[in-house]
Design goal:
- This protein is globular.
- It is mainly alpha-helical and 297 residues long.
- The model has no long low-confidence stretch (mean pLDDT 95).
- The chain has 15 helices and 2 strands.
- It binds geranylgeranyl diphosphate.
- Geranylgeranyl diphosphate (GRG) is lined by residues 45-46, 48, 78, 81-82, 84-85, 97, 154-155, 158, 183-184, 224.
């Protein structure tokens, strides 16, 4: 099962790389920030969010190659968030995906600008008629991505996380869940929702897919905490044990590793149960749910 999902993710990576390379080449100026942006999106990564967009759309028999542009847009936002998160003023990381972080490879100003450029490019891609023929759909996709990335989504979650780190009060379980939902969950939920919008999901289907996405989103964060606490630096391609060093409240510090693992498994079980209405078409998304807690990076 694991091999199957890994090879499907690998195929997505290949396709996304091609699309992103073309789109970034079209930016038509061989400048430092263009090169830095290419570096930020081409340096590995599991392509989970693009995969979720495409596999959700496949539940509705959407196999149009233009879906890759939509999937690429969300990856641009994800990659920008990692570049900015690694900056000295945020997480101050030297390694990402096994390579020096973008501000180490270039410099801080270039990394900030490349992140800004990728965020803006995501909306350019979604608003472009090459991406979807229906302007109402394009507007809906822009709105979903804006909501997930902005003040009430990833940016807001990052702010709360930074504030929590600099305060002496340790977060409780509900507070951690809220922050992680904003910081990481919203973009994962957005990937599924975007796939469902393109697929023309009805309200019942949309609700089940949203439940699936919130469960895998939370499980993803629990497993990220587990990987930070127990994982291997080389396999992860970034520094580990950072939460411990910062004395940060996480799912693992609050629950212990065993209970955190149990929570992640329960969340994945609930996520998979939300897919029953899609019959045998649901297999890949179910396997992806398992992968989220079985991965080693
Ligand atoms: C800077 C606005 C702003 C937001 C940053 C996403 C985020 C918010 C910070 C990243 C910090 C972090 C390690 C969060 C844990 C969850 C996460 C997003 C991990 C990385 O995602 P993966 O595993 O990465 O999908 P790859 O490299 O596979 O693409």
């Amino acid at each position: 099962m694991m091999t199957k999902i890994l090879s499907a993710l690998y195929q997505t990576d290949k396709n996304i790389r091609k699309v992103l390379q073309n789109i970034l080449n079209e930016q038509n100026n061989v400048s430092r920030v263009q090169q830095a942006s290419i570096s930020a999106v081409m340096n590995g990564g599991k392509r989970l969010r693009p995969f979720l967009v495409m596999e959700t759309a496949k539940l509705f028999d959407i196999n149009d190659p233009r879906i890759l542009r939509i999937a690429s847009a969300i990856e641009c936002v994800h990659c920008y968030s990692l570049v900015h998160d690694d900056l000295p003023s945020m997480d101050n990381d030297d390694m990402r995906r096994g390579q020096p972080t973008l501000h180490k490879k270039y410099d801080e100003a270039t990394a900030i600008l490349a992140g800004d450029g990728l965020l803006t490019l995501a909306f350019e891609i979604l608003a472009d008629e090459k991406t979807h023929k229906d302007s109402d759909v394009r507007a809906k996709l822009c709105l979903e991505l804006a909501k997930a990335s902005g003040l009430n989504g990833m940016v807001g979650g990052q702010m709360c996380d930074l504030q929590a780190e600099s305060s002496n009060d340790l977060l409780n379980m509900q507070e951690i869940k809220n922050i992680q939902n904003l910081k990481t969950g919203k973009l994962i939920q957005c990937a599924v929702k975007i796939g469902a919008i393109v697929g023309g999901a009805n309200s019942k289907q949309m609700q089940c897919l949203e439940n699936y996405a919130s469960n895998i989103g939370l499980a993803f964060q629990v497993s990220d905490d587990l990987l930070d606490a127990l994982g291997d630096e080389i396999l992860m391609g970034k520094s580990v044990r950072k939460d411990d060093v910062k004395n940060k409240a996480t799912f693992v510090s609050l629950l212990g590793a065993d209970k955190a693992q149990e929570l992640a498994r329960d969340l994945i079980k609930s996520a998979k149960s939300e897919l029953e209405m899609f019959d045998e078409k649901n297999q890949t998304l179910k396997q992806l749910a398992d992968f989220i807690i079985d991965r080693d990076s």
